[in-house]
Amino acid sequence: MGVGSEKTSSTTKGVYKEETDNALKAPLNVDAMLSKKVGHATAERATWGRRLEFVLASVGYAVGLGNVWRFPYLCYRSGGGAFLIPYFLMLFLCGIPLLFMEFAIGQYTRLGPVHALATICPLFKGVGIATVVISFVLCTYYNVLMSWALYYFFNSFRAILPWQSCNNTWNAVGNCSSGFPGNATHLQSASQQYFDHRLLEITNGIEDAGGLRWELFGILILAWVIVYLCIFKGVKSTGKVVYFTATFPYFILFALLINNVQLPGAKNGMFYFLKPKWSKLLEVQVWVNAAAQVFNSIGIGFGSMISMASYNKFNNNILRDTLIVSLANSATSILAGFVIFSAIGYMAHIHNLPVDNIATDGPGLVFVVYPEVFSTMPLPQLWAPLFFFMLLCLGLDSQFAMVEVAVTSIIDSFGPKVLRVLKRQEVIVLAVCVMGFLLGIPHITKGGMYVFQLMDHYTAVVSLMFLSFFEVIAVCWVFGLRRMTIMIKRMLGKAPNIYFRSCWMVFSPVLVLCILISSIIQYTPARYGKSYTYPVWAEVVGWGISLVSIVWIPLGALQEICTNKGSLLQVSILSTHVSSFRIICYKFAKHTICYKPRQL
């Protein structure tokens, strides 16, 4: 890599020798020493054009499809209004402190999750790699949801909505109902048959792939093209797009809420949504569900928040941004709950059914129940396109962040080598998008829904809890509260208060550990719908998917122990000091530009 890498190597050796004699002391101030030894310009990392762009991008990432289909159902099934107690407790003891922690790590180190976590705690550097892997795996099938939303969006402009009746070629007339079938288990609603037999053309199981759905294949290409065009210039282009994609869904949610509360039966639906069932608080699963919702929704453990914060200016007020993002995310979840259940209450009133028979979880809530709602509402050709366009905006913001994690990590890790071949960052983004598209193809086969459900269960549930636990341990206990406090004080001018210090040191690690243990004890295999269970070989594949990300944690620790001398404590602490002096260089056609992460 030329002169930059040679100087870095000699500096690192000298620092390591001195640190070996002072194992547990604070790191030395070598900023001046590095600036003298580096013989070329230091390039500052790209930054957001305005602070608002970072806030909107973070809110857009946190507020996704899970706020619309996951939170309302969890709240309803886990005690209604009583569920808000464990939810907000987990939010304030885990969600807000850990989001602040991730923002601080990204902003201070100016690195993506791989190098940022390797810098502050090399013994757990595999956690950084694992977060990138899980984000990329997630983005390969998350964009499939975008293709479904686009499919429904394009079909929402017809004079008669295609899921409105049973008089279509894809309907099984003998067991099709134009409304919700209630307790008649042999019947399916027209919207359910549209989802199963028109959109998915679903087979009987994961064993039968059934060939590609070519319409979805083309729409999936379109979805990835949209993603690429929005992020190919990095934060400069993403920062402009989020002004629309992060704010537009709120206009639609409020418009739907105003419309829905005027419908008959809407109050009954909202009452079911918030009706407290205090006995549910004694169930461990309710607390696990609350924690899982907080982690999944805010994005703890995915690396996206670290990546986006790495483009901040050094003195950006991340404490204020943390509160805005976390509270906006929770408020949106509650708002979406009122929107969804007011509509469900209306449907229960129309079909004279209890709300129990209509409320459902997952994709079925937004691709089956809500389309059925639109078919009975005034102006369905207005509300249906707006709703699915809102879903598209919600999903795109999350997709931007997940793809950006992969791009940032590639540039931070292999920037000079990759740019030597591909020349421009835009080509790197294109390569990541193409790879994501190819890996998403199995999800758009006729048996792809089973693949989708399997991936979602083992990626977003099983892997996430493991990664979150090790990230918290690496930062809060190994890296240490003292270093975190100094790091934040340098950026914000004041140390974090007792609330954050207590959460980082005690509450967050202990709660995450309890959640992880409870998740393992109460583990249930993946399933689709109420009846389909996966064969053993599919479960093995699912665990393999989980291990694809988790395995990097022990591998990274093993590699660090084998390549560094000293005790386990010395390896983790000394390497932390040395890693903070790494200089990252980018070699372009005519010159080389380097920058270094800030010293910890």
UniProtKB/TrEMBL annotation:
Q: Share an example GO biological-process annotation for this protein.
A: amino acid import across plasma membrane
Q: Does the keyword ATP-binding apply?
A: no
What is a single molecular function from GO for this protein?
metal ion binding
Q: Which UniProt keywords apply?
A: Disulfide bond, Membrane, Metal-binding, Sodium, Symport, Transmembrane, Transmembrane helix, Transport
- Could you tell me which Pfam families the record lists for this protein? SNF
Positions of transmembrane segments: 54-72, 84-105, 126-154, 216-235, 242-266, 286-311, 323-348, 382-407, 427-445, 457-481, 502-524, 536-558
Query: Cellular location of this protein?
Result: Membrane
What GO cellular component entries does it have?
plasma membrane
Q: How does it sit in the membrane?
A: Multi-pass membrane protein
The main location is membrane
Keyword Lyase found: no
- Specify the domain of life of the species encoding this protein: Eukaryota
Disulfide cysteine pairs (residue numbers): C166-C176
Binding of Na(+) occurs at: G60, A62, V63, N67, S297, N329, L394, D397, S398
Q: Which family does it belong to?
A: Belongs to the sodium:neurotransmitter symporter (SNF) (TC 2.A.22) family.
Could you identify this protein by its name?
A: Transporter
Which taxonomic lineage is given here? Eukaryota, Metazoa, Chordata, Craniata, Vertebrata
Originating gene? LOC115164435
